Amino acid sequence: MTRPRNVRIVGAIVALPTVVGIATWLTIGSFAQELPDPVATHWGAGSAPNGFSSRMTGMLFPSLFAPIVGIVMGVVLWAAFRRAPQLRRWAGAMSGFLSGMIGGIGVASLWIQRGLTDARQATDTGVMISVGLAVGVVAALAGAAVMPGEAPGSVLAHEPVPGDAPRVTLAEGERAAWSGWSTSTPLVLGSLGAMVVPLVVLVLVGSSIGFALGVAVFVGLLMLTMSAFRVTVGANALWVRSVVGFPRFHTDLDQVVEARVVDVAPLRDFGGWGIRGDRHGRYGVVLRKGPALEVRRGDGSRFVVTVDDAAQAAALLNTLADRARTAQPR
Amino acid sequence: MLIRIDVTSSVPIFAQIAASVRRAIADGDLAPGDRLASARDLAESLDVNLHTVLRGYQELRDEGIIELRRGRGAVVTTRAKGRAAALLALTAYIEEARRAGLTADEATRLVREGMNS
């Protein structure tokens, strides 16, 4: 059980970036004869190249830089999320995204210089970021797929919910559902601001409006996915879903050992805001300071979500978890 | 927002859902501008039919307590709190009137007289 999982972990954060590096090298090699020497390796404002290096360096740099950055990022995130099973796939995704983006930009930046006698003529920079993002997203999906998620069954709670945990009174035939929002006004405003910045910068640099708009929407959506989450406690699970639908987390009632209200200080406890994990196996959606719902799960991990009225959510979750235990005795 | 229903009760489930929302608004758990859980989420959470929840939401909309907007879901209106409180008081009044043996006509007449005075 553990061995194939370990193979997949190494596959996602070491093998995948390495494959991206080799693919970068081979792809560039296939058209290397057509490249000028030196090649342009850096572009300034107005899409004019302002940095050059020998053809060999220009080929080697992205081929080595892509896997190194991918592996370092993967290992760092893996270490951070090791005990947060629901976040592990992010380590694979980020590792894939960074190596793919760097490799993609590297290949595209040389591809546009084919057949040129002088690298100073290479000015078609728009394609570089598009190719980089596209390759990055594909590699991120691959990384997330290779990285193993939660081992089914390992999260199940085996003990009853502690007697002193908060509860609500529910009669025999009664059902209850709780829902609330986990949001951060600064982050929502920030995501709107984050849309304006690339828009202004790209238009100033001379990119087409369409491309600038595309990047702005992409960045804005990316930020927005992280700044507002709907939290639901219901018939069979606790759901935490982004307004955009992804990312989302769910914990089945039979995985809940206990739910409580805790006080969270994002900077002190998690080093910042967003989807966060700490070194003690505590992780979740941390968007503001104050009361949060904390759910201890069968595998010992603790899932946290900052939400208003966490007390009611915790009480209902414990009550429903009690029910789930008695409904199917194990 | 906590929504409770009792499947063994004789009160229809859609009416129980509407009553739960009214209570949450009257108690201040829900404020004007707040969004209710989407009908689909709530149906899934309570393990009831989607149309049951939608019927409950439609009742709240007809009472002016929420607005239903395509894409934005159900939003609590600015006048919701007063209306929800009045409707809760009305429910309590009807129960008392029933217990006291008043007929529907008598109870209605008392309300009309009270409002006209």
What's the mean pLDDT score of chain B? 90
Q: Helical element count of chain B?
A: 5
Regarding quaternary structure, how should these chains be classified?
A: heterodimer
Quick one: how many beta strands of chain A? 11
Radius of gyration of chain A: 24 Å
Largest interface chains and counts: A-B, 23 and 21 residues
Q: Could you give the distance between the termini of chain A?
A: 23 Å
Write the H/E string of chain B, N to C: EHHHEEHH
Instruction: State the helix count of chain A.
Output: 8
Global mean pLDDT of chain A = 85
- Shape annotation of chain A: elongated
Radius of gyration of chain B: 15 Å
Helix content range of chain A: 40-55%
Strand content of chain A: 15-25%
Kindly estimate the percentage of residues of chain B that lie in beta strands according to DSSP: 5-15%
- Low-confidence parts of chain B: none
Major beta sheet of chain B, specifics? 2 strands, antiparallel
Q: Which strand order does the major sheet of chain A show?
A: 7-10-11-9-8
What's the total count of β strands of chain B?
A: 3
Number of structurally distinct domains of chain A = 3
The helix-strand sequence of chain A is: HEEHHHEHHEEEEHEEEEH
